UniProtKB/TrEMBL annotation, chains A, B:
EC assignment: 2.7.4.8
Catalytic activity: GMP + ATP = GDP + ADP
Function: Essential for recycling GMP and indirectly, cGMP.
Molecular function in Gene Ontology: GMP kinase activity
Cited PANTHER family: GUANYLATE KINASE (PTHR23117:SF13), GUANYLATE KINASE-RELATED (PTHR23117)
HAMAP family recorded: Guanylate_kinase
UniProt keywords, alphabetically: ATP-binding, Cytoplasm, Kinase, Nucleotide-binding, Transferase
Family stated for the protein in its record: Belongs to the guanylate kinase family.
Ranges where the Guanylate kinase-like domain occurs: 6-184
Species: Peptostreptococcus canis
Gene3D superfamilies per record: Guanylate Kinase phosphate binding domain, P-loop containing nucleotide triphosphate hydrolases
Taxonomic lineage: Bacteria, Bacillati, Bacillota, Clostridia, Peptostreptococcales
Name listed for the protein in its UniProt record: Guanylate kinase
Xref: CDD domains: GMPK
Amino acid sequence: MINKKGLLLVLSGPSGTGKGTICKKYLEKNKNVKLSISATTRKPREGEIEGISYYYKTKQDFEEMINNNEFLEYASIYDNYYGTPKKAIFDELEKGNDVILEIEMQGAMQVKKAYPEAVCIFILPPSLLELKNRIVGRGTETPEQIEKRFNSAYDEIKKLGDYDYFIFNNVVEKSVEEIHGIVYSEKNKVIRYKNEILDMFERELEKC
Amino acid sequence: MINKKGLLLVLSGPSGTGKGTICKKYLEKNKNVKLSISATTRKPREGEIEGISYYYKTKQDFEEMINNNEFLEYASIYDNYYGTPKKAIFDELEKGNDVILEIEMQGAMQVKKAYPEAVCIFILPPSLLELKNRIVGRGTETPEQIEKRFNSAYDEIKKLGDYDYFIFNNVVEKSVEEIHGIVYSEKNKVIRYKNEILDMFERELEKC
C-alpha cells in the first residue's frame, strides 16, 4: 500500500450558510482531523486562548512572517492582520492528518492559489429565503446590514465555479456525511497518487 | 434543490483483482443502482437469461446497431460481437438512477471517450503477489496462461493514469464503501452542477 498525505479541506461560502456549525460537527466526529488556527495582531478578548482561538502576534512579528512567506493567506481588516500560517498546516498534512480551514471567500481563493491540492468546498444555503431567515434569526444585525449581507450573498454564490465541491447545507448531519464522502474519494483519486502507486508495483515486481 | 442525473460508474482493472465481486456486493447494497447488461451475438448457454445475462442479438441486428451508433463500446472476440448498448444506460441515468458497468480495460477507455461524464474506477490488487495467488487460486488456467495473465496485469496497471479513481481491493466491504464515497462526492462536484445551481438561485431571486 502507499502512504497518503493529509488533505487540506477549505470550507467557505457566504455568511449565514452554517460553515461554522458544519466545521465543528465534522471535527467532533473525526478526532484525527485538525482545525487550522489563524494568527492575528488583534488583542485577545476575554475567554480566548492562545493557540486555540488564535495565535496572537505583534504587528512586527506578523509583518516579518509575511515577508518570510509564512502565510497561506492573510488580510488586513480594520488595522489588524489576520492570516493562516503554513507551518502548522503542512506539518499535520505530512503526518497524514487532514486539516480543515473555515474561511471567508477571498481567503479561500488565496489558499487555493498558494496550495492547489487544497479541496475547496462551497457551503450553499438550501434556498435564498432560508439564508435570509438565518441572517435575521441571528438578531445581531440592523435591517440595513441584513439587506446588504443578503445581496452580497447572492453575488458570492456566483463565484461557485471557483470551487471543487458544493454542499447544500440543509441538515447539518447530512452535510457532515457529504464532507466525509468527499474526503474519502479525494484519497482515491488517481491524479493524487498515480506515481506512488506505480512506484510501489515496480518495486514489488523487482522482488518477484 | 436541483435534480441530479444518475452517474455511470465504470469498474475496470486487470483480471483477478475482484471487479466482479465488488460489483455484485455494491449492487446488493444499493438496490436502486442498475447493472449495465451487454449485448452479444454468441448463443445463450444453459441457465443464461435474455436481458439478465445478455441481450442476445443476431449478427445482422448487432451490425445494424453498430451502424446506428447504438453502442457505448463494442468488440469482436472469436467471431462474436459483444457491446454495451447506450439506450438502456441513458434511460436510467435520465431517471436519476446510477448505472454500474464492469468491463475490461479497452472497453472502459472506449466508454470514457464516448461518454466523458462516466466515472472510471481502476480496481487494483493489494499487491502483485496477492494477484498471482488469486489467479492461481481460481484453478481454471494452465501455468503458462497464469504467467501470461500476470505479466499483462502489470502492463495494464501502468494504464492507471487514464482513470479517475483507484481502489486497492483488499477487503471487499471496504472497496464497496470507497465506491460509495466516490459516488457521493461526484454528485457534489461543482463542475457537474454549476449551471443548474446558479439557475436555481436566479429563479429564486426573481421571486424574492
